[in-house]
C-alpha cells in the first residue's frame, strides 16, 4: 500500500511516524515534508495548495490513501477534487471545511444546532461594528471571518483597542479578504483544552484530550502562536467533562452535519473553554492540531491507518480506539523572533544524540536538509515529545531532549505543563 501525506509540520511528521508503524504500508510519500519526515517517507516537492499537482501525483503513484494535514488545501476543496477522481482522501470536503475557513459559518452552525459557544455579533461594515463597540462591555474578542494562519483573533481590553482592531481588519485588511466580515464575541474565561475526534458522517470517536500553550512567553504572556507545547492527557478534560463534551458538542455536531447534509470524513478539533465544569467551543478546526498531534498520536495504541481507512470507508462504528496509559508532553523549539520576524538557515546540532532514545521523539516542523546538515526553515522548528508514566516524567524527558539540541537563537517555553503539574 502507498500512502501520501500532505503537509510539512510537526503534525505531519507525527502522522507519518505513526503510519510508519503499519507493516502493510509499502511506501509513504509526503508533500512537501521536511528533513525529519524524509527519514520515514519520500519527500515530494509539491506545494500543499497545488491541488492538481497532488491529484496527478496520487493517481500516478497508486496511492491507496491521501491524508491531508493542514486546513488550506481542505478549504480549497482538495477532498472534493480527489473524490471526483475516485481517489480516497482523509479530510472533509469544502462544505465541512467551512467550520474552520469561516468563523461566521461555524458560529451560525453552532447556534443552529445548540452547541455552546460565546455570544456573538456579525458585521460586514466597519461603521456598524464601531457603533456596537461604543455600547459593548470589555474585554471582548474580535475575529476575522476567514483563515488568517491562526492570527485572526484579537482580544480588546477597551473601546480604543477594539476600534483599532476593527479598522486594521476591515479597512487596512491586515488579514486580506479574511477580514471582509468580522465576528465580535463575548470574552470567555476558564481553562482551554483541545479535544479532537475522528468522524465519518455516522460515527464520532473522540480522542484523548490535550492542552496546548498558545502564547509565546512563559506564564501565557505575549503574542499568540500556532502553539508552543502540549500535553496529553489533560487533567482539565476529566471523565465528567469528557461526557459533557460528547453530549453537548460532539453528538450535536454529528447530528448537525447530518441535518445540514454535510458528509464529513476526517478529524474535527474543538478548541474549548471550560468554566465551572461547562465546556464552550472557542473554535473548530477541520484537521489535527499542531502540536497536539505530537502528544496524542504517541499515546494512540490503535493502528492509525486502520482508523483512517475506516473513516473514509464509513466504517468508523466498527472501530474502538485504544490508548496507552502513558503521559506525553511536547516542547516546541522555535526560531528566535517567532511569531514575528525570524531568521532561517541555522544549523541544528544534537539531534543524533536523541535518535536512539526510547522515551523521547523529536518531530520536525520548520527544518530542511542542506548537504548533510539539518537547518532551520520555519518559525516553529522542532517538537520534542517526552513519554512517561506520569506527567512529571514526560516533562522531564521532553526537557532532557530539548537540552541536547542547539541552534543559534533557538527559543522555547520553560513552563509547558506547569499548570497541570501544580495540581498533580
Ligand atoms: P481561536 O483561533 O478562535 O481558537 O482563538 C485563538 C485564541 O483566542 C483561543 O485559543 C483563545 O485563547 C482566544 N479566544 C478566542 N475566542 C475567545 C473568546 N470568546 N473568549 C476568550 N478567549 C478567546
Ligand atoms: N494548536 C492549535 C492548532 O493546531 O490550531
Written description of the protein model:
With 424 residues, the protein is α+β, with helices and mostly antiparallel strands. The chain folds into 4 domains: 2-94, 3-Layer(aba) Sandwich (Rossmann fold), CATH 3.40.50; 125-180, ATP-grasp fold, A domain (Dna Ligase, domain 1, 2-Layer Sandwich), CATH 3.30.1490; 191-318, D-amino Acid Aminotransferase, Chain A, domain 1; 327-422, Phosphoribosylglycinamide synthetase, C-terminal domain (Glycinamide Ribonucleotide Synthetase, Chain A, domain 4, Alpha-Beta Complex). 29% of the residues lie in helices and 27% in strands. The protein contains 13 helices and 23 strands. Strands 12, 15, 18, 19, 22 and 23 form a 6-stranded antiparallel sheet that branches. A 5-stranded parallel sheet has the order 3-2-1-4-5, sandwiched between helices. Strands 6-9-7-8 form a 4-stranded antiparallel sheet, with helices on both faces. A hairpin with a 3-residue loop joins β13 (215-217) and β14. The model has no long low-confidence stretch (mean pLDDT 96). The chain binds adenosine monophosphate and glycine (GLY). Adenosine monophosphate binds at residues 118, 141, 153, 185, 187-188, 192, 214, 224, 271, 282-283.
